[in-house]
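Backbone description:
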Amino acid sequence: MTVEEQVDLVGAFVRGVVERFGYDATTTTRVEDDRLYVDVVGEDLGLLIGPHGSTLDALQELARTVVQRRGDERALRVVVDVAGFRARRAVALEAFTRRRAAEVLDTGVAEALEPMSAADRKIVHDTVASIGGLETGSEGVEPKRYVVIRPAAATVPETAPDED
């Protein structure tokens, strides 16, 4: 399936869902770096976002599945955003992560964050990686997978064995 066919398929799918929810909203698509972005803009779209973005995550997963089931190995990654929710969430999560990271740097004590989606965990991992002196790891099992921020393991220099 070509990129254009994937864009048309996902765009039509998301537009159809939005229409069935009864919303008068605009849906736009764009492709950047092997990702297909679908943006839905309109008024009072909270029901499409759901609590903590859960409905939005489900819509994105369905859109991804539509492409993968009809496509081949060359399927684009699909990212659906409604009313700028993901962009706002990313900014807020990055700020939250920086505060938690500063606390871990100050205290030297690892901190486990609340369970979050894979997309949110990636934001946390990327933010912490840009700080330095810290490392992250994802732990737990979906849907309760979470990130732990901890001080980076100190590099221990290798010592030569004693010569007799």
Summary: The chain has two domains: 3-83, 88-151. The chain is about 45% helix and 20% strand.
